[in-house]
């Protein structure tokens, strides 16, 4: 008989007693039900009553304007609402980019490691991912340049800020070089910047969105990480020519704008200052959890378990001794009621077998500490 379910989401069901360090979504306690009820009431009381109509293909202009005003201070640069297009979240945006800018069988470039579910979307589109190496400063742009001499990909998919799973940030110098390569090689860069607002210590370098007008870049953002994934609401930012191409697609022509209902409610949340408030709470909560998790990892795990303390995002990426197989450890961990994400899931070449991703987004601090204690009993102690 399967274990009873203590918590169930679209991506998984968590049995009671399990401490889940694998799941990359906010704790149920951090989902802003009260704020969203307030925003929905505010939105429903608007005299123009447009919430339930088909929406504009690019997304409601007032929502895009409020979103641009919200993003400006976070990005440290002005954002033009004309360069924003409303999406159903970053996953849908990735899928739409694949539909519009690639054909089955074509090569794309991804990072090694990369977001495991983006890999699945690329597989849905029968794309052929070529993995590019990363280091502590993010994607190694020299390796990209080298590959570009040999292969012309449909696009590069990159997670420049608080990468999933490694949490590293692409350095400012590499961001410039990446934009320059995009210009020189007409390379479409899909920059998944969903974690950019979640900084806990120092601000990250400027987003790739900053170079949207001067290079061939589509930057993706999402309310999933800063408000609630159930809203299915995000945005992409790009130059007008790319926006026009996307606005003209059959999906938007037939269905109208993506998620006018959620964007109407979130417009109210933005106007009432509720998104900023929620983001401040998340930064404080996740920042504290991250510190507690890293301290426990340093104390409990053997020195052969290496990690860098991230400055933002959701994850700690742990590298164990070369010979360790985290897939085998995963089964042992489950038997101790703790779960993590094995590194191989993020690899496009069946590698990273000695790595694991730990999330501090879902569990609160006492559970994180208990989880690391259990993990230490599986991995071994100092
Ligand atoms: C890098 C990255 N992109 C996209 C997503 C999915 O975002 P959304 O909920 O906006 O589709 C995630 C969620 O884990 C993610 O980590």
Q: In words, what does this structure look like?
A:
- By secondary structure, this protein is of the alpha/beta class.
- The chain has 2 domains: 7-30 and 276-379, Aspartate Aminotransferase, domain 1 (Alpha-Beta Complex), CATH 3.90.1150; 37-272, Type I PLP-dependent aspartate aminotransferase-like (Major domain) (Aspartate Aminotransferase, domain 2), CATH 3.40.640.
- The chain has helices at 33-44, 61-75, 90-101, 116-124, 141-150, 172-185, 240-247, 250-255, 260-271, 274-300, 326-335, 365-379; strands at residues 7-8, 13-14, 19-20, 84-87, 107-112, 128-135, 138-139, 156-158, 189-192, 217-222, 234-237, 315-319, 338-339, 341-342, 355-359.
- The strands form 4 sheets. Strands 4-11-10-9-8-5-6-7 form an 8-stranded mixed β-sheet, sandwiched between helices.
- Helix 4 links the parallel strand 5 and strand 6 (128-135).
- Helix 2 (61-75) crosses helix 9 (260-271), helix 3 (90-101) packs parallel to helix 4 and helix 10 (274-300) packs parallel to helix 12 (365-379).
- The longest helix has 27 residues, at 274-300.
- The chain is globular and about 60 Å long.
- The two termini are 37 Å apart.
- The model has no long low-confidence stretch (mean pLDDT 95).
- Residues 24, 89-91, 115, 159, 164, 192, 194, 222, 224, 229, 234 line the site of pyridoxal-5'-phosphate.
């Amino acid at each position: 008989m399967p274990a009873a379910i203590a918590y169930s989401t679209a991506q998984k069901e968590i049995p009671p007693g399990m401490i889940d360090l694998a799941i990359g979504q906010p704790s149920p306690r951090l989902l802003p039900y009260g704020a969203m009820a307030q925003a929905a009431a505010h939105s429903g009381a608007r005299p123009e009553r447009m919430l339930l109509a088909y929406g504009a293909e690019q997304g409601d202009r007032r929502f895009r304007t409020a979103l641009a005003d919200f993003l400006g201070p976070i990005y440290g640069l002005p954002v033009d609402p004309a360069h924003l297009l409303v999406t159903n979240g970053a996953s849908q945006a990735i899928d739409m980019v694949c539909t519009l800018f690639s054909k089955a069988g074509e090569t794309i470039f991804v990072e090694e490691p990369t977001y495991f579910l983006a890999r699945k979307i690329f597989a849905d589109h029968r794309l052929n991912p070529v993995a590019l190496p990363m280091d502590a400063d993010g994607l190694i742009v020299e390796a990209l340049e080298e590959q570009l001499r040999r292969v012309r990909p449909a696009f590069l998919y990159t997670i420049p800020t608080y990468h999933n799973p490694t949490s590293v940030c692409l350095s400012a110098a590499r961001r410039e070089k990446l934009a320059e390569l995009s210009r020189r090689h007409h390379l479409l860069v899909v920059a998944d910047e969903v974690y950019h607002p979640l900084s806990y210590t120092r601000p990250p370098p400027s987003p790739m969105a900053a170079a949207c007008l001067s290079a061939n870049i589509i930057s993706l953002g999402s309310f999933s990480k800063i408000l609630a994934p159930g809203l299915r609401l995000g945005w992409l930012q790009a130059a007008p020519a790319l926006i026009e191409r996307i606005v003209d697609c059959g999906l938007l022509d037939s269905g109208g704008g993506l998620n006018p209902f959620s964007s109407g409610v979130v417009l109210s949340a933005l106007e009432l200052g509720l998104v900023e408030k929620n983001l401040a709470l998340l930064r404080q909560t996740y920042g504290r959890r991250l510190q507690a998790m890293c301290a426990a990892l340093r104390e409990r795990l053997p020195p052969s378990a290496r990690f860098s303390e991230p400055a933002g995002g959701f994850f700690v990426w742990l590298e164990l001794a070369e010979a360790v197989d985290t897939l085998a450890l995963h089964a042992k961990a489950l038997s101790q009621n703790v779960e993590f994400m094995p590194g191989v899931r993020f690899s496009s070449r069946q590698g990273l077998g000695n790595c694991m991703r730990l999330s501090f987004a879902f569990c609160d601090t006492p559970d994180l500490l208990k989880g690391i204690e259990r993990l230490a009993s599986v991995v071994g102690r100092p």
